[in-house]
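Ticket #4471: structure export looks truncated?
Reporter: QA, pipeline team
Priority: medium

Steps to reproduce: submit the single chain below to the structure queue and open the exported record.
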Amino acid sequence: MVGCSGGSDDAPRYRHVVVISLDTTRADRIGCYGAGEVLTPAIDGLAEEGVRFADCTSAAATTLASHASLFTGLVPPRHGIPRNGYVLDEENTTLAQRLDEAGFHCAGFIGSAALTARTGIDAGFAHYDEDFGIAAGEGGADQSQRPGTAVTAALLDHLDAQLARDGAEDARLFLFAHYFDPHAPYAPPAAEVARYRAGFAVGDFARIENAVRQQQERATGRALGQNAVINDGLTAELLRGASGVPTATGRELDRLYAGEITATDAAVGRLLAGLAARGVLEDAIVVLTADHGETFWEHGNAWNHGLWVSQTDVSVPLIVRLPDGRGAGKVVDVPVSGVDVTPTLLDLLGLDDPSASEPEVARGRSLGPAIDGGALPERAVFTFATQPGPKVERGGAPGDWLGARKPVAVRLGPWKLVDAPYLGLRMLFHLGRDPGERTDLLLAPVPATDASTARGRLEAELDALRRDVRPRSTTFDAQQAKQLMGLGYVESSPPR
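Actual output as written to the record:
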């Protein structure tokens, strides 16, 4: 057995940890998060057995930076990763490293090249499986990857070998499964195309580009295209002018996306069933989350993740299921973050958290009190855009945070401030009254008193982040760029 929950001698003990990460998965497209038209029975069942955090924000809007935060418990301006293609500095301590020290066998199974071992995100894993069956560019794929069915199969095959070697009674396991299927292009199995009555079978990059241009033309009267905004950035005109109304192409893409979510849920279901059949699930903490979401037609960064920090980009599921039924069925509405996952797991296991010495504004916190029905004090939640890349990363002083000029959002309760330095733009929203972020309260001729107060508090949190947090070093790995070739992964050059 490993550790004890909360450090108490009489608390339940947990043997295994399973972390499931869904790529590009919006919370609002999952059944238990309100998407009644999207079938996700495995995820919904996990939520019934665990604690569902209803308002979780990813730390970043692309895969590598978000996962680095997930596994270090630190915001990107501290761990140092500004976007895909960079390398996690060895000064960071990951969850796998901490669990490896505690005697766990750590094994990761990766769905896309954004998390290849070259990034350093594999630190602490004794086994790191990145056997991609689809090469970058093949069949319109945007990066080297493999389907969720193959991720599940690889994990269960390795698990069988590990249990045979260690014995089921002695094994202590940390298993990480990353499912990439919901990422564009949208190409669900034929059964899901039929289930959601999609008008075409594949949402390839040509159709996505068409949908992007349609939204841009509605907003500004001209179509720039996706790569133009990824490379050069958004404009205030695009952000202010977005209609938030889907086109016919957009609706069809949404149906295909729903099919990808359902297919991914099926792969997760097979994983959970396989863990149960092998006697692992009954002793395992299971965490299910996503690295980021995806904006469709709602905002100026149409059919993108990375350029902006709208809720569509960064609102993700977070479910924590404990094997003893602790907290089962509970829903927590307090805003939380992906950086809270590692501190929570270490707390549940009774293990020291290496990030505890970091400034509070730079790190996550344990959600254990909320699992047990306690209150979580209000705390700022940050999330970071990762695009555009080299254009806004150049020109800083050595050691500066490479993402310093990109958009960042800070939350306190329902209040959300977005700051985009490269655009000289700030926006303020009240998500309780305006969940779609349609009304920028800073544009009011005379801002309401509560809006002015909230702005001051949010700006103080942002100032504290920029004052107190310094990034660890990072390097750009050009070799990774060869596996990140498609739409949204064209920012391959180093910053300076």
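Status: closed, not a bug. The export was complete when the record was re-opened. Leaving a note from the reviewer for reference: The chain is about 30% helix and 15% strand.
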